[in-house]
Amino acid sequence: MAQRRRWPELSSMRDASGLRKGVISALAIAEIGTGPARIGDQAMVERYADEISSLENVSVLALDRSIAVEAALIRGSSALSLADAVHVAGARRAGATAFVTNDRRIGSLPGLEISHLSEIRLDA
Questions:
Q1: Quick check: 27 and 35 in contact, CB under 8 A?
Q2: How many CB atoms lie under 10 A from the CB of residue 45?
Q3: CA dist., res. 111 & res. 70, Å (int)
Q4: Domains in the chain, start-ordered, CATH in brackets?
Q5: Does the global pTM surpass 0.90?
Q6: Measured between alpha carbons, how far is 116 from 104 in angstroms, rounded to an integer?
Q7: Which pLDDT tens digit goes with each residue over 106-124?
Q8: Which of 71, 69, 51, 72 shows the shortest CA–CA distance to 60?
Q9: CA–CA separation, 108 vs 115, rounded Å?
């Protein structure tokens, strides 16, 4: 079994005061809401969007022109999907130093420490 990393080891995810903080692309709301949308549950889509938007120490980053251009450059020079390139571009634009993902296909990215959810322990 792979050793799971603890949040404190991800020091790049903490701000100067020691708080964990993060940014998530607005695209994630669309991705997460797709399941309930497929079964016609608009209320659940809205609830997911509200829950994500109200996460403590997490900012939802709107997709804008500069992120779109950065995503195109990332996608053009890598094997990342368009959605993943948008997430990476957003993280970089927000000044992130770490990138947490569920996607094992995302290995290393210049300027970002990659952590997979399955490797992180939240109990520390």
A1: no
A2: 19
A3: 14
A4: 5-121 (3.40.50.1010)
A5: no
A6: 7
A7: 888 888 888 888 877 665 4
A8: 51
A9: 10
